[in-house]
Please model this.
Amino acid sequence: MPTDAHPGPLRVLVLGAALRAGSTNARLASLVGRMMTEAGAVVDLATMRDFDMPLYDGDVEAEGGVPDGALALRDRLERCDAFVIASPEYNASLPGVVKNAIDWVSRVRPQPFKTKHALLVSASPSLVGGNRGLWALRVPLEHLGTRVYPDMFSLAAAHQGFTEDGQLTDPALQERLRETVTAFLHLVEADARYVCLQRRWYEFPGDRTEAPVTQRAED
Model:
């Protein structure tokens, strides 16, 4: 039934995917979180240290089920409309701790990555800013049905990239990040709030792109 009630602010989980306390990716996650808060979203800021779990092992799962750390991450994903991962790049790929978390959480049914929107960002002292790791990170997320935002953000020379108050030293990069965050939130809002709109841009397995409104497979 139509209602005039405001649907409330978007909820976004922002995950700093590095374990190191002084990580530039933790600083980037904090900056993205502040930008989203300023845009009116409710932000749940987290780090991988919040979700302790062993290496994935089918025998461990068979004996004791999914570990508490993975269930906690599942719960926080389920409470959000979208999520952001600020991930470092390890040897031109994603960190093992991030892949391990994805593998564990994907074992829960229904698994929470499907149909969620995700924005991927990275910070690295390298000249490519960790971008290769983000391309690798897209693969398991998109396989699980996550709608990964096409425009990723990577901060090169990140050890020199932040001011003392946590902003980016380069005003042009600061503005580009803000534009990316804003555009991402607009897309999430359109998907979460205006489900009557046609969504013919979806091209994922199980979607009926010929339908007036995309029908999503949840299995």
In short: Confidence is low (pLDDT under 50) at residues 200-207, 211-219. The two ends are 27 Å apart (CA to CA). The CA atoms of residues 51 and 124 lie 23 Å apart. The beta strands are 11-16, 42-47, 82-86, 117-123, 147-148, 153-155.
